Amino acid sequence: MHIRNPRTGQADYTISPPNPAQITDLVNQFRLAQIDWLALGVEGRVEAMQAWKNALERYKEAIIDALTTDTGRRNETLLELDVVLKSIDRWCGIARQFFAPPSQRVSSIPFISIEQDLVPYAVVGVISPWNFPLLLSVIDTIPALLAGCAVVVKPSEVTPRFIRPLLQTIAEVPALAKVFTYLEGAGETGAALVESCDLICFTGSTATGKRVYKQASERFVPVFLELGGKDAALVFEGADLDRASSALLWGSVVNTGQSCLSIERIYVQDTIYEEFVKRLIDKTEEIKLAYPTVSDGHLGPVISDKQVDIINEHLVDAIAKGAILQTGEPGCVKLGGGHYCRPTVLTNVNHSMKVMTDETFGPVMPIMPFRDEDEAIALANGTIYGLSGAVFAGNTEEAIRIARRMQCGAVSINDAALTAIMHEGEKNSFKLSGIGGTRMGPSAIKRFMRQKAYLIKTAGIPSPWWFG
Amino acid sequence: MHIRNPRTGQADYTISPPNPAQITDLVNQFRLAQIDWLALGVEGRVEAMQAWKNALERYKEAIIDALTTDTGRRNETLLELDVVLKSIDRWCGIARQFFAPPSQRVSSIPFISIEQDLVPYAVVGVISPWNFPLLLSVIDTIPALLAGCAVVVKPSEVTPRFIRPLLQTIAEVPALAKVFTYLEGAGETGAALVESCDLICFTGSTATGKRVYKQASERFVPVFLELGGKDAALVFEGADLDRASSALLWGSVVNTGQSCLSIERIYVQDTIYEEFVKRLIDKTEEIKLAYPTVSDGHLGPVISDKQVDIINEHLVDAIAKGAILQTGEPGCVKLGGGHYCRPTVLTNVNHSMKVMTDETFGPVMPIMPFRDEDEAIALANGTIYGLSGAVFAGNTEEAIRIARRMQCGAVSINDAALTAIMHEGEKNSFKLSGIGGTRMGPSAIKRFMRQKAYLIKTAGIPSPWWFG
After folding, report:
1. Is residue A313 packed enough to be buried (19+ CB in 10 Å), middle (13-18) or exposed (0-12)?
2. What is the spatial distance between Cα B329 and Cα B346, in angstroms, rounded to a whole number?
3. Is B380 on the interface with A (CB under 8 A)?
4. Shortest CB distance from A250 goes to which of B246, B413, B464?
5. Separation between Cα atoms, residue B426 and residue A277, nearest integer Å
6. I need a surface site. Which of A116, A347, B265, B295 has the fewest CB within 10 A?
7. Which H or E element spans position B430?
8. B453–A246: do the CB atoms touch at under 8 Å?
9. Conformational region of residue A122, where left means phi above 0, alpha means psi within -120 to 50, and beta covers everything else
10. Residue A226 is among the residues annotated as catalytic for this protein
11. pLDDT exceeding 70 applies to what percent of chain B?
């Protein structure tokens, strides 16, 4: 299987996916090895994860190089590895607190006491996307491993180059290598994982997520799905427009807009609309493409060539329906074999346009005015998605009050896309943006375990009570 | 649609299920009404639930009469209503504690604080079975209502007579009647609920549960499934055999064995096997059928005539393969139009017999000896189910240690089927016994809500951070 380089357009890398029978064998082997992993206890698992963190630091350069080739960008790659390394420490701390020794507690029935246990699923399958290849391959994996599960990860075939250096880091921690691995492969490999694992975590498109849910339901295994978004930002009169325009530019174009939590639509109160648009255009025009070299400018190429088609389709559709291109280009541009999307501001947009309803996943900023709060909320909630959003208002209290009306799992207040850097809030996805427990916050670890109750008869009350 | 009476065999009751379009309309109407229900706040909802509890007490006699006709038994019916009334108070208390006012907390990033919210699903569909028609129709409904959801319940068409008096109790609480109702109907009505609600709770057979999961995955809505079991009891040398035999008799035959948490298999250490079997047979022979009147004896008829076929099939299969009938009958007996199953003890059984692997759902007690703990655990875990189990041993510590090795969600220690009376332990179903969060314990209420995080930028750190 040949892999395209997003900067050159050349197929310069090859992967050899395992066949389904090999995956079944691997998962069965992991299911046995998981017993020892669980028996290590949380301290043993924390120790292994810290050893892995050290290995990641030793292989830092090789991982960053591979990820940079995978994604064609460098700034976000440095941030990505940094976030991952920090998250290992955070999860180790949470896991230690989480696994307090069980204690019996008295129930409301005087002759029964209760003891609780947590039993991890044996083998978790993780299927992850190409937009943050490393981060999104470990975001569920690290808490699952600490919970005591074995984990098999199948990252996107679009960005597989980081897998080999990562496998070397895992090999350096023998206890971990028995219960944690990465597979190269595309949809078929992912499907084989869904066919064999005990719980599935999928991050990716809503279309594929729906297929994963159906396949998991056929096998009667649980799924956690983190899917697409069409995050709206609402800017109200009274907001700091300098701050709002900077934050929304960042939230819209960072990583070339290739984040589930990107701002995809901006709604601005009509009284400040002109002023906001002007500021946003001015700032947008300072953003440069990271071309010709990866160290130039800000925005790398669009990673997946399929995504190029979607971005172009949204822009063509919007302009055909009357959208005005304020800055940017009416489609991606081809430079040195890569496809680049200039940060693009559209006005005169409405909800008949795909750019306002479907996930664009590019640095495109369609801006639409609104009259009052009710109209703003109706527009923001007028979507099949419910991942996150942002509110800018004159003060925090007003912004939170408005944010309460938004149908999504997280809202940044007076900033944009804060879930990118802040993983401590517990959030669920609304609507078609996902299914399953929160992947952020302390209780994310609990998703990987079943609760078990021991109901202990403590006094010699005779049974059966209702006979005789 | 004509409904059979389990004591007479006569079709003496008729239901008229709504059509799918009516169900869609109802759910849409509830989706709007839920906004007001949520706005009542937890205190307003607690007040409505307490008013409903009072209405249930006023209609107690009519409900008990209907349920007794539905199920052909009276003792368990009295217990059932009592458990339901008590559970309303318990859930009101839990809900009050649960909805503490939100507070902002500081995160590890100094300029971001976090506030959390809980957002209920709008309309929950509950599909419930015939074995405890009232209890299992409200076990998920009460916490869902208190969470702020609207709820539509579709009980089994085998036992629908209690629905009409129950609807009268709901009508007495106007605030509740706008967001809570029961529908008469069979599989088609249940399927229409899955087609229209925002979250599905299903209690019933694993076969139907699998279909519900598939249908929910097609619609991309979450499901909570509580399905079949094949609960094992392990009796070790050192156990109090008098207590163990009484408890296991109760746990096996109560409600004519028609409980998901019935003991379905008994494994006894070989050194005490003969003595245990003797005691169990002696006690079993004291149990009488509740015939000719509902006030006689102990065990009512088998409620569902389809279940009669399954019980008979298991007994015939076991005896054909060498099982010895120690007491009871080789099949259900027909008395006055009803099908009754005498409490039946089988020995010389093994795992080639359906009675040891499939859910019998009757008062049948197959007993098998084991040599040591490892063999006992292998036998107990040798099943596709993982609902609950029981361990009897010389002391509590030993029993808990053994219980930890059982792959199921709850284990009664030195008693049987304690989840029937104790709903405070948090438990998940293992294997094919279910999917989704715990329906018992305080966090059961959380299943009906999505978490939402507000990430609040508290200081004027300029964004975007990585530009310039």
Report:
1. middle
2. 10
3. no
4. B464
5. 53
6. B295
7. strand B430-431
8. no
9. alpha
10. yes
11. 97
A2-227+433-454: CATH class: alpha beta
**Counting runs of H as helices and runs of E as strands, what totals does chain A give?**
16, 22
pLDDT score, position B120: 97
In what helix (H) or strand (E) does residue B270 lie, and over which residues does it extend?
A: helix B270-284
Give CA separation, A177 vs A152, A449, B40, in Å: 11, 21, 53
Contact residues, B window 61-90, toward A, CB-based 8 Å cutoff: 75, 79, 90
Alpha helices, H only, A339-444? 354-357, 373-381, 396-403
Averaged pLDDT, groups of 10, chain A, 468 residues long: 97 97 98 98 98 98 98 95 96 90 77 93 98 97 98 98 98 98 98 98 97 97 97 98 96 96 97 98 97 95 98 98 98 97 98 98 98 98 98 96 97 93 91 94 92 89 48
Alpha helices in B148-227 (DSSP H): 163-171, 174-177, 187-196, 206-219
Residues in chain A: 468
Q: How many CA atoms lie within 13 A of B449 on its CB side?
A: 23
CB A318 within 8 A of CB A353: yes
In sequence order, the 6+-apart residues with CB closer than 8 A to the CB of A207 are: none
Q: Which residues contact B372 (CB under 8 A, 6 or more apart)?
A: B269
Query: Dihedral sign, CA of B434, B436, B437, B440?
Result: negative
Tokens of A144: 């699952």
Pick from A403, A424, A428: CB nearest B114: A424
Catalytic site residue from A92, A149, A197, A260: A260
B20-39 vs B187-196: helix crossing angle, rounded to 10: 50
* CA angle in degrees (0–180, nearest 5) for B304-B322-B254: 35
Distance from the first to the final alpha carbon of chain B:
73
For residue A400, list chain B residues with Cβ-Cβ distance below 8 A: 115, 454, 456
Residue B440 in contact with residue B423, Cβ under 8 Å?
A: yes
Q: Which member of A114, A218, A428 has the closest CB to residue B451?
A: A428
Residue numbers in B near A462 (CB within 8 A): 243, 246
In a 3-state reduction of DSSP, which class is residue A236? Answer: coil
What tokens does B455 get?
A: 């990430």
A202 DSSP assignment: E
Active site residue B226: yes
Would you kindly state where each structural domain of chain A is located, as residue ranges?
Answer: 2-227+433-454, 231-420
- Closest by alpha carbon to A403, among A231, A229, A228, A270? A231
Contacting residues of B for A216, CB less than 8 Å apart: 217
Q: What are residue B126's DSSP bridge partners?
A: B153, B201
Q: Cα–Cα distance between A45 and A51 in angstroms, integer?
A: 10
What six digits make up the tokens of A98? 């989480």
Q: Which of residues 140-199 of B touch A (CB under 8 A)?
A: none
The ipTM of this complex is 0.95
Cβ atoms A456, A112 nearer than 8 A: yes
Q: Which value, in Å, is the radius of gyration of the alpha carbons in chain A?
A: 24
Which CATH number applies to B231-420? 3.40.309.10
